[in-house]
Amino acid sequence: MILNKIWSYTFFTIIGLRIEKRYLFQPKSDGQYVYCANHGSFLDIAMLVYLLPDFFAYIGKESIRKVPLFGYMFVKLHITVNRSSRKDSHRALVDAMEKAAGGRSLAIFPEGKIDQKVQPGLTPFKDGAFRIAIEKGLPIVPVCMPLNWYLLPDDGKLLPNFGKALAIVYPPIETKGMTEADVPVLREQVFNLLSTEIQKYNTLIKL
């Protein structure tokens, strides 16, 4: 994780991106959580590493393997998934359950992909993050990065726009006592929170 931290700090220093961090909840370094964040840019992974204090396992798409150096570190520490394969999606879910059982926090983008067409906004959430949280009795910690979609849009050009990034960590949502029947309600609760916050900051903050 130290290498990941060094990589993220170096990355943001090189590109000169200022990040405003707002902690409405300060995660404990020895705590265990399921972080659920919106996914609108390739900046998101590095920003989560920059933002969060503990040694979490991130679930990301298989193509990350191809990123020089970072891809190698990623597959050694985290979980890759080919979302077009049901078998591989199941394998990734099992891997995530095992890492959670071993005491690791998890960081998951419930959207499962970046969709530039819906920005600033969200695509429907998948159930995996919420099933894991309920199964392991872990709190869900929502994380919002409302401006990344603009700062580095996924439009095929990889050309950044000027501005300051914003990252917000929200208070945890406890899942103890919940069952699988509660997955849809929990999923919608997190979706509605992040959707509302994304719209608010894209309305009030002048880029």
Q: Mind explaining what this structure looks like?
A:
The chain has about 210 residues and is α/β, with parallel strands linked by helices. Helices cover about 40% and strands about 15% of the residues. Strand 3 (about 55-60), helix 3 (about 70-75) and strand 4 (about 80) form a beta-alpha-beta unit. The longest helix is centred in the C-terminal third of the chain and has 22 residues, at about 185-205.
Which descriptors would you attach to this protein?
40% helix; single chain; seven-stranded mixed β-sheet
Helix content: 25-40%
How are the strands of the largest sheet arranged? 1-7-6-2-5-3-4
Q: Tally of extended strands?
A: 7
- The N- and C-terminal alpha carbons lie at a distance of 32 Å
- Element string (H = helix, E = strand): HEEHEHEHEHEHEH
User: Structural class of the helix and strand makeup?
Assistant: alpha/beta
Helical region count? 7
SS strand fraction: 15-25%
Mean pLDDT over the residues: 83
Radius of gyration: 16 Å
**What general outline do the C-alpha atoms trace?**
globular
Unreliable sequence segments:
68-72
Largest sheet: 7 strands, mixed
SSE layout:
Layout: H1 2-15, E1 19-23, E2 34-37, H2 43-51, E3 56-61, H3 70-77, E4 79-81, H4 86-101, E5 105-108, H5 128-136, E6 140-144, H6 148-151, E7 165-169, H7 183-204
Parallel strand pairs: 1-7, 2-5, 2-6, 3-4, 3-5
Antiparallel strand pairs: 6-7
Helix pairs in contact: 1-2, 4-5
In short:
The protein is an alpha/beta fold and 207 residues long. The protein is 40% helix and 15% strand.
